[in-house]
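Duplicate of #3305? Posting structure anyway:
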């Protein structure tokens, strides 16, 4: 090792010398404190590559034009921002070209180069700082001051910061490289802007540039959506790139500091605003929130005078609003749809400040892409429904006073004077209403000419209101003894005039003047036929706490005629008795009503109905009353049919008001949360307690079908934005209610991967998409992408084969193709060197200790021997000339008014993530001349897109582009593949929702067949290599040796002149010829066979002779005696 260290001395000396000569003496920057003593956590794995756990800032991290949700750091000096939490790679090799606007991976690189912590040396410390609520931290104060100073940002407050420190990081391979690096990165954001500080320890950047054979180190950042910046060192000589600690920052005057602005432009961060607003709110809603409810329908709310129609500008577009305010229980606003159905209600703290009140809801819900923020908002501000709504209890007085009490008892009272109509009280407030009557012309009857009310509460100063009748049916109104001047509400289509002051809201519409006291009590006064008519509505809090002419409110009309002394007369008492009862409520105190202008007779007795009915001559006056007693009385008493008909009309109107206030829309019973998997049908049944109810969808969608009986079928085919709203309508009274279920769709590759409790919104709709839990082999938002060994780039000039991985390292390097380095030189072989031209054909020579310090060659893939002379292996061809591109044309439709930049980015994102990645660029993105108007009011636009793909010789690229590309594009533009979660912000988007396309929308403009493609590739190497194509492997340079070039078992070797066969004899044969195609027989074997055959024939003849001889001898011996006898 001593030799290796001394060998490195010239490089170290040269670096120091150049540093001293080229840079003046300037202090280097100090790293921020790190390590366990300052609370840092340590994270290191003793492997060649590793990644940290994911960081998930609550407020996100602005990078380029988007808001990133995840980030992690690697051992290789990067902080990476993946698009999904399963897209985790270490990317050890920086691109040779540096950062460009087309980078597909978003990352910040303080020192991107291949590191190796596997030897046990070096470590990494990190700490995360969250300061959402102005917490003080000394380190962050220093970070903020540097950012302000070096980026000229004078109002910066860090809300989330990450500090990562690489300490003594070794280069790959750690076993035989020398020197380590120590550096630090600070990422900081205020939610709208983000910055990076790169700090390099002075003298701590010690990697040996002579040992870095791959792409040089890369510093800077790329947002993945076109925003990037390379370090100023990128254009410097290679040795300077590896000494960033000596780089002088001209802005700061410090060595070893680089500062970057990571955001493209400043944008509001609604997550941060929501969280800060939530921090200021009490943990639970304040007292009284559950006592607020909305009218269940618009029709019901219009008669409830506690609620006033309100215009909310753009926020309330498409809906109508009613609001009510109370000093002690707060306010409530209610939104209604076109059929009068209640959409939602929400609390408000201050009247007429709708923008301030609704902003938090917009921050947390409307403008936020994370439903979890909206859930937190609704914990603090629960939605207001109508479940607890109780209509006010009305009482009214009209005509020659006909009175209906709070419990509904009716009587006629023609007393003359000032009277207490009602006094009510509870623990928070009290209310007093008085009325003044005068004689109706010359008739023996009276009518109201003035009303006065007083409202007292501990939270407000006392409020008094007077209604005074003036000529021509006009009403003079005073509040706290001051004449009221009404202002026209220009936003109200009916021209309603309004007066608003603390604790009271008054409206005037012609001769009708209404007042709402603190959102609880409402008084409505009408001037008609020179008579004041009034209605009074009290809230539930006053039940069992009332007295006066309007009775005792306890739902029992029999005790309504209770006198001040506590005694009660029967409800069926005579008119005379009821007159005497009413006079007991006469008052002498004129402080509230004021002094009278007229003189009252001392003894006034009205005429009663029984007396009037005895006069038969006046029957023509009452023919139009149709038996209505109040109309008959007023017509006969005043001898004026018009007054009687006015009384009848007012009576019918108040009956209608009472009926509407107590009529409720149909209920909707059924599931409030719907979960479904793409392509599967979900069936849900909804019912209502009301009869004659029909169910419909407010918005038509292709994925939903609702039958009139409440059966809902949901088959999610796409992730198009949609708001499911189920409308139930009563066909008899036309009252409607709506249900807005939470809809969650899962588009994961497998249903088992669905996480329905981790959702995000689709566009600006209420549709939510479930998160996905990918397995080890998949990634992407929906686990739709399979992990490929080629996802991470290989070492410089090393090709990656899809499905197989990186090829071998370049000839002069060793490694696995992704990590390559110069070969190790053993100290035992320091004095040995390779002979000149020892290795042929670009082979690399090194001294191998394993071979006893003898030279060894690392050969290109084609060669099979140890000296790189004999070829025969297959290899990937090289491009002879520039390849034509595969070109297709798409016709796409969308209705989001997307820009050409958004369409380009969205199409590129989908085509870049096809099964085989060969997409190059979109050559043309152009809209059609005119769009098509939709029934919804939107505009359907068509886009012409010409996309280019790059032919590559290896893997299934050629087969895919020629046979599968068009079908793959159709699949990529299926709706379930079209949505990608994106922050609700401006800038290039990749989540434009296109309409599904058909085969007619995809045209092939240019494709090359295999025979044509072969003309563009060459097997640069030995003679007679030729191209062979297979769908899975692509084009390969194949030697004849691997195709049986030599026959009869000949051994093939591919020499520079071409393949050569070495014929190997076998059996009795000797192959011969250029390819061993001929067979010859060995001479010795020939004679051996010949003589052997002759010997065999001779032996066979001898055996035959002996057998025949023996046979013949035996025959002669047995025949001899026969001859002698004869």
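Output from current build:
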């Amino acid at each position: 090792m001593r030799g290796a260290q001394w060998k490195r001395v010239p490089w170290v000396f040269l670096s120091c010398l150049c540093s001293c000569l080229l840079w003046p003496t300037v202090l280097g920057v100090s790293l921020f404190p790190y390590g366990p003593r300052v609370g840092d956590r340590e994270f290191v794995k003793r492997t060649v590559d590793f990644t940290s756990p994911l960081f998930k800032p609550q407020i996100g991290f602005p990078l380029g034009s988007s808001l990133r949700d995840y980030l992690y750091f690697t051992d290789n000096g990067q902080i990476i921002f993946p698009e999904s939490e399963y897209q985790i790679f270490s990317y050890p090799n920086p691109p040779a070209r540096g950062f460009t606007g087309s980078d597909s991976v978003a990352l910040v690189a303080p020192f991107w180069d291949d590191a190796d912590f596997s030897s046990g040396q070096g470590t990494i410390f990190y700490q995360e700082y969250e300061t959402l609520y102005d917490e003080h931290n000394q380190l962050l104060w220093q970070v903020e001051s540097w950012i302000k100073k070096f980026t000229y940002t004078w109002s910066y407050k860090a809300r989330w910061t990450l500090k990562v420190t690489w300490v003594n990081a070794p280069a790959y391979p750690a076993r035989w490289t020398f020197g380590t690096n120590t550096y630090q990165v600070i990422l900081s954001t205020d939610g709208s802007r983000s910055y990076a500080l790169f700090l390099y320890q002075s003298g701590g950047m010690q990697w040996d540039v002579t040992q870095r054979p791959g792409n040089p180190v890369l510093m800077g950042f790329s947002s993945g959506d076109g925003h990037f910046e390379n370090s100023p060192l990128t254009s410097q000589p290679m040795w300077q790139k590896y000494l960033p600690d000596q780089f002088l920052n001209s802005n700061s005057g410090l060595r070893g500091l680089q500062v970057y602005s990571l955001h493209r432009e400043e944008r509001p961060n609604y997550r941060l605003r929501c969280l800060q607003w939530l921090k200021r709110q009490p943990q639970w809603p304040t007292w009284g929130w559950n006592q607020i409810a909305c009218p269940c329908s618009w029709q019901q709310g219009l008669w409830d005078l506690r609620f006033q129609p309100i215009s909310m500008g753009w926020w309330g577009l498409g809906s109508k609003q009613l609001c009510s305010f109370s000093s002690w229980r707060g306010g409530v606003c209610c939104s209604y749809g076109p059929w009068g159905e209640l959409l939602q209600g929400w609390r408000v703290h201050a009247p007429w400040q709708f923008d301030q009140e609704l902003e938090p809801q917009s921050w947390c819900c409307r403008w936020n892409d994370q439903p979890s923020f909206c859930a937190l908002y609704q914990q603090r501000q629960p939605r207001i429904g109508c479940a607890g709504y109780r209509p006010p209890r009305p009482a009214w007085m009209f005509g020659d006073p006909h009175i209906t009490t709070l419990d509904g008892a009716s009587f006629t009272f023609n007393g003359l004077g000032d009277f207490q109509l009602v006094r009510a009280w509870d623990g928070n407030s009290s209310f007093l209403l008085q009325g003044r009557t005068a004689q109706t012309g010359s008739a023996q009857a009276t009518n109201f000419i003035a009303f006065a009310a007083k409202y007292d509460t501990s939270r407000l100063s006392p409020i008094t209101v007077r209604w005074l009748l003036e000529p021509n049916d006009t009403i003079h109104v005073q509040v706290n003894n001051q004449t009221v001047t009404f202002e026209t509400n220009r936003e109200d289509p009916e021209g309603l005039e309004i007066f608003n002051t603390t604790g009271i809201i008054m409206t005037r519409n012609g001769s009708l003047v209404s007042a709402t006291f603190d959102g609880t009590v409402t008084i409505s006064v009408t001037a008609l036929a020179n008579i004041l008519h009034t209605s009074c509505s009290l809230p539930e809090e006053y039940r069992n706490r009332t007295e006066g002419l309007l009775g005792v409110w306890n739902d029992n009309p029999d005790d309504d005629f209770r006198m001040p002394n506590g005694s009660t007369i029967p409800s069926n008492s005579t008119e005379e008795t009821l007159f005497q009862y009413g006079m007991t409520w006469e008052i002498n105190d004129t402080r509230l009503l004021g002094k009278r202008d007229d003189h009252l007779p001392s003894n006034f007795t009205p005429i009663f109905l029984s007396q009037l009915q005895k006069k038969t001559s006046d029957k023509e006056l009452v023919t139009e009353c149709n038996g209505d007693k109040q109309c008959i009385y007023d017509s006969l008493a005043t001898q004026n049919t018009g007054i009687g008909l006015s009384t009848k009309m007012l009576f019918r109107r108040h009956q209608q008001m009472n009926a509407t206030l107590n009529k409720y829309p149909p209920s909707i019973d059924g599931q409030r949360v719907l979960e479904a998997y793409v392509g599967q049908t979900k069936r849900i049944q909804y019912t209502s307690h009301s009869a004659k109810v029909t169910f419909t969808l407010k918005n038509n969608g292709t994925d939903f079908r609702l039958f009139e009986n409440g059966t809902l079928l949901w088959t999610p085919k796409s992730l198009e934005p949609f708001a499911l709203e189920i409308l139930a309508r009563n066909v008899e009274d036309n009252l409607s209610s709506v249900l807005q279920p939470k809809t969650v769709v899962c588009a994961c590759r497998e249903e088992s991967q669905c996480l329905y409790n981790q959702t995000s919104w689709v566009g600006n709709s209420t549709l939510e998409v479930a998160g996905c839990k990918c397995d080890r082999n998949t990634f992407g938002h929906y686990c739709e992408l399979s992990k490929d060994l080629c996802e991470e780039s290989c070492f410089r000039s090393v090709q990656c084969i899809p499905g197989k991985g990186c090829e071998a390292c370049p000839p002069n390097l060793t490694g696995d193709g992704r990590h390559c380095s110069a070969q190790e030189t053993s100290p035992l072989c320091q004095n040995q060197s390779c002979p000149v031209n020892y290795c042929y054909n670009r082979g690399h020579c090194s001294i191998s200790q394993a071979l006893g310090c003898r030279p060894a060659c690392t050969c290109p893939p084609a060669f099979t021997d140890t000296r790189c002379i004999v070829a025969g292996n297959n290899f990937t061809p090289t491009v002879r000339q520039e390849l034509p591109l595969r070109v297709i044309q798409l016709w796409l439709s969308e209705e989001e008014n997307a820009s050409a930049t958004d369409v380009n980015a969205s199409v590129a994102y989908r085509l870049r993530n096809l099964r085989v990645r060969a997409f190059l660029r979109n050559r043309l993105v152009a809209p059609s001349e005119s769009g098509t108007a939709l029934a919804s009011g939107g505009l359907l636009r068509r886009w012409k897109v010409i996309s280019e793909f790059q032919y590559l010789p290896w893997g299934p690229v050629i087969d895919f582009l020629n046979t599968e590309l068009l079908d793959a594009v159709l699949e990529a533009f299926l709706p379930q593949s079209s949505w990608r979660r994106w922050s609700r912000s401006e800038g290039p988007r990749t989540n434009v929702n296109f309409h599904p396309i058909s085969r007619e929308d995809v045209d092939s403009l240019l494709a090359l067949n295999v025979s044509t493609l072969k003309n563009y590739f060459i097997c640069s190497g030995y003679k007679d290599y030729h191209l062979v194509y297979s769908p899975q492997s692509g084009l390969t340079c194949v030697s004849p040796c691997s195709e049986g070039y030599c026959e009869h078992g000949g051994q093939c070797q591919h020499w520079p002149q071409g393949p050569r066969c070495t014929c190997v004899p076998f059996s009795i044969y000797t192959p011969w010829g250029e390819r061993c195609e001929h067979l010859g027989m060995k001479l010795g074997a020939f004679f051996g066979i010949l003589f052997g055959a002759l010997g065999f024939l001779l032996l066979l003849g001898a055996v035959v002779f002996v057998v025949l001889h023996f046979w013949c001898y035996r025959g002669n011996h047995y025949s001899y005696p026969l001859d002698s006898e004869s």
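Confirmed duplicate; merging threads. The chain has a mean pLDDT of 85. The CA atoms of residues 319 and 848 lie 82 Å apart.
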